[in-house]
Amino acid sequence: MPFPPGPPAFPVLGAVPWLAADFLGALVRFRERYGDVVHLHMPHADVYVLSHPDDIGAVLVGEHAHVMKDVITRMLGRVVGQGLLTSEGETWKRQRRIAAPSFQPRHIARYAEAMVRHTRALAERLPATSTRDVHVDMMRTTLEIVLDTMLGADTERDLDTMRELVDELLTTHAHEVVTWRRLVPRRLRARAHARIDDAIARLDAILYELIGARRQAGADGDALLDRLLRARDDDGQGMSDQQLRDEVATVFLAGHETTALALSYALHLLASDPWVARHVVREVDEVLGDRPATAEDVPRLRLVDAVLRESMRLYPPAYVVGRELLEDRVIAGFPMARGSQVLMPQWVVHRDVRWYEAPERFLPFRWLDGLAERLPRFAYFPFGGGPRICVGNHFAMLEGVLMLATLMQTIEVRPRVPAHVLRPRNSVTLRPTTGVWLEVRRRE
Q1: In this structure, what DSSP letter does residue 67 have?
Q2: Residues sharing a CB contact under 8 Å with residue 227, sequence separation 6 or more, in sequence order
Q3: What is the pLDDT of residues 183-230, one digit of tens each?
Q4: In the chain, fewer beta carbons within 10 Å around the N or the C end?
Q5: Domain limits for position 169
Q6: Residue 354 forms part of a structural domain
């Protein structure tokens, strides 16, 4: 059978030029022009882009045993090691069995107080009126929460150093692997790769110090690191320091930035729609009044939850899921060879008019009438899906709802004058190119 339809390939570069200028826009145009299965000739592998929920489910669930993480995700292993995000096979299964219990909702709920406390501290630091990049604020606050709840550390040294390392690693690594520079031999990019190696070494020094200190103290606390130190597999074996380092690095680097992005985009959307913002404030005031939010309040903060879900629909922090075929398979009716890369973009699926009325509009109320139950299973998948669904999804949703509710208790957000144009870009995550600038005022 022939390849699925797709854009014509350029000599040597294949489809790279079609994607280089506007990766996200190109994926949308490909689906509109060529359909739900698109073939891209790329320099090192054939790439298939799937945009129908049934086909996505077939890969993430039905073909789970015949695929592994895509090459771009695996390259993150250089930074996060062989944690749950990047490991494969028996290593992943063992790590998942050990780590998963610590991420269950009943355990995550214990972190609600810290999530709210750090968010209220942010609100108290804000001036009465300011024009600011709220993405910077969200990144700092979610970083504080990670250090507190997951690592059991909250020192200024850790905060400042970690913030610097996160920016260095996510920016520089993405620069080397998500752009055309991935095609350049490493020896020709020696200086850039040296910066990455230096940042990894500095991160390792902090993480191994924290792990050693917790082991010596007996790991009897409630931080995630303590739970992972106490966890055992079926044979009674715990994680080595290397395994702990990799899991903590994965949670730290992948976990805190995705929540910060979802909240930054949610604030941007609320600033652009005062009518929705007023309804959110009304709900928050009715449910919370002046008291701090708790985990028990989350089921009643339905519109806050809906705003967060709509933010992740329009601006999914994880904007594409990728897999690599371990053997020749037939997927979506087309034969695909071993080594092929399969991309399943949330950015495209979440904007499909077949599943969402007015898909480009910010309409959080759509989630309050049972939409989630009516949608095809993989028409909305901000945390991926199948056996390798993000293990931190419960933490992320609890944190996102509690932080957004707490912020809307204390501040108002409005568009900056002159208006700031939001420009998300494909990096390791969906990062704002020039920040998320808003006018922020304390509520009276």
Answers
A1: E
A2: 101, 102, 107
A3: 666 676 778 778 888 888 988 888 888 888 888 877 677 788 888 888
A4: C
A5: 16-442
A6: yes
